Amino acid sequence: MPGVDGGPRDASDPAAWRTYVRVDSADDAAERVRAAGGKVVTEPFDAGDAGRMAVLADPEGAVFRVWEPKRHQGSRVVNEHGSVNFNSLHTRDAEQAKAFYGAVFGWDTIGLGPGASMWTLPGYGDHLEQDNPELRAQMAAVGAPPRFEDAVAAIVPCEGDERPHWGITFAVDDADAVAAKAKSLGGEVTVAPFDAPWVRSTVITDPQGASFLASKFVPENKGLAGSPAASQAA
Q1: 104-134 burial, b for 16+ CB within 10 Å, e for fewer?
Q2: Is the pLDDT of residue 86 over 60?
Q3: In the CATH hierarchy, which fold is given to the domain comprising 84-232?
């Protein structure tokens, strides 16, 4: 699930959308991060009666949060216009990342063509099919690769001096219209709408400096090569 921090910011802690991973135990997740070579930035703590969380970082310094739900279970709506669609790890060392996140969360990966891959959680598709029994059939109908129903996040290679980090993608009905709307509201279109495998996307930065990817699902784009513009999403 995503989250955004409020309050005063400074250059060392800019406004940003934060990636959260749901876990059974925040304390156990923190210990697995340490054992796998990551860092516990903030030790596990209770967020009132909503849940328990910790701030963690992988070996490259990409920061993420874990969320142990209590009263607040997490995102109730996903993959619909204006809701979270995907989180993406921007990394310089994909093999190291695969070892780390596999050890911490049990994630695996699938390839989506040249330069594109996804994190998968075995069995996640079974969970999704509880709400949408036609999920696998729908994915097969649009030519999705095997095991795509288990996809939980994307892997994006860092470019230039880009720092390793987690970024967030929101689903939209029209990437071009959303880019125009964001600009009219005082935001910045960091990357103009572009076509990439399976999607048409744009990178937007809000007036406080928090960036995100807005993406429309376009199955006709499934055969396209990866777009370097996608790596500019924060």
Answers
A1: bbebbbeebeebbbbbbbeebbeebeeeeee
A2: yes
A3: 2,3-Dihydroxybiphenyl 1,2-Dioxygenase; domain 1 (3.10.180)
